[in-house]
Amino acid sequence: MASITGNDKSMVRKQRRPVVGSLPGDLLIDVLARVASSSFTDLFNAKLSCRDFLGAAEDEYIFQHVSIDKFPVIHWFPPSDELLSFLNQCIDKGNPEALFRQGMIEFFSLARIETGLEYLKRASEKGHVEATYVYGMILLSRGGQSSQQGLNILNSMKASRSKNLKIRDCRAKIKAIIREMWINNSISLNEVRCTCQERNNNKKVCFLKRKFDEEEDIIGCESCGWHREVISFCKMVDGIV
């Protein structure tokens, strides 16, 4: 039986091209993005597994979709240069969760109101549910034209059987983040008009203010619900609930 020479072994290795290396670049990036969206750890392991994954992992699309849920929003100890660089790239590349977190820090901790709102707006436009909720709540609390804009944004959150569950999930996540933050910018709830109350029988216009009882009997409509919600949100920011 003939033995395999060194040259033959080299030819066999060349013929056995890794399957990953044969994938089109766009497909490779899409596969990595799906991995990244579920777990940063899995993405890291994929990068270590082969050179093709390592190169594709630097694509902008990966940073936009990578999950950063395992990283704390507030770093009580200075993060490593590598982690800080990674998180900053996520923000720069438009990762919705990274934009949301930065918006929360800018608006509530650093009191950079316009910058914080811009981050929250960008995250909301990318479909981030919590960012949409917070951005809408802030605008609704301001009254006037901003109030109507906030109401439109909140109403854009898709109505479904799971809507109430989504709102509860929003509150839980946002409350957990706020509890970790040093709040330097509380929200002052201005007069917010609920239009359906202008159409009641005695034509009395009612304004919901921050200290109103949440259990007050209110003529029901979707905007009334959001007005009650913004009161709860303000209390959450203040640490009352």
TrEMBL record:
Q: Which residue ranges does the record assign to the At2g35280-like TPR domain?
A: 70-179
Which InterPro entries does the UniProt record give? At1g67623-like, At2g35280_TPR_dom, TPR-like_helical_dom_sf
- Could you tell me which SUPFAM superfamilies the record lists for this protein? HCP-like (SSF81901)
What is this protein's record name? Answer: At2g35280-like TPR domain-containing protein
